[in-house]
Amino acid sequence: MVYRQGNINDLSKIKNLALSSWGQFQGELTPENWEKLRKNLANQETYLNLLQKSYCLVCENEIGGIIGMSFLVPRGNPTEIYEESWCYLRFVTVDKKYGGQGIGRKLTEKCIQYAVDHGEQTIALHTSEMMSPARHIYESLGFTILREIEPRLGKKYWLYTLDLIASSTN
């Protein structure tokens, strides 16, 4: 497997990976909430925006298919969830056929290292009760729950942070 920086040429593969991988949650959501999520995942603007303002990391299989991705949005891009001084992870996604092979962990580790190398001090992410394996990865890497945030898609969500200054000195 090869990890490399993603770019605009990967747009359709990134979108297809998201739609395919996140489809595993369809049964855990109401039809209305699944449709909201599906529309967001299918919206090309979502990925164009992320590709323009963030560091995109992809994992390719031996034939060049994108089987994993993550986006690290640098500080200075606040949202209703994230503070201006934080960088944050979005769409850490792995093709379900490649689950359990450490790809999600490696994508997260590489984004953490990129953040440290670029002087970020705090990295954040949000995740839900549907994503237990992801939460386990984040917690094992030192992320801690800062607070529960407003439910989304009818599910509980938490905001996690990791202090990069403290973790880089350990």
Characteristics:
about 170 residues, alpha+beta, Aminopeptidase, about 40% helix, about 30% strand, globular
Summarize this, please?
This protein is of the alpha+beta class. The protein has helices spanning 11-22, 31-42, 44-53, 103-117, 132-140, 164-169, and strands spanning 2-5, 55-60, 66-73, 87-94, 122-128, 144-152, 155-163. The chain has one domain: 3-Layer(aba) Sandwich (Aminopeptidase), CATH 3.40.630.
Would you kindly provide a written description of the structure presented here, covering whatever features stand out?
With 170 residues, the chain is an alpha+beta fold. The chain has one domain: Aminopeptidase, CATH 3.40.630.30. Helices cover 38% and strands 30% of the residues. A 7-stranded mixed sheet has the order 1-2-3-4-5-7-6, sandwiched between helices. Helix 1 (11-22) crosses helix 3 (44-53).
Present the secondary structure layout.
Layout: E1 2-5, H1 11-22, H2 31-42, H3 44-53, E2 55-60, E3 66-73, E4 87-94, H4 103-117, E5 122-128, H5 132-140, E6 144-152, E7 155-163, H6 164-169
Parallel strand pairs: 4-5
Antiparallel strand pairs: 1-2, 2-3, 3-4, 5-7, 6-7
Helix pairs in contact: 1-3
The helix content, as a percent range, equals: 25-40%
CATH topology description: Aminopeptidase
Alpha carbon gap, first and last residue: 29 Å
> How big is the Rg?
15 Å
Largest sheet data: 7 strands, mixed
Protein name: Ribosomal protein S18 acetylase RimI-like enzyme
Keywords: Ribonucleoprotein, Ribosomal protein, Transferase
Domain N-acetyltransferase: 1-163
Pfam families: Acetyltransf_1
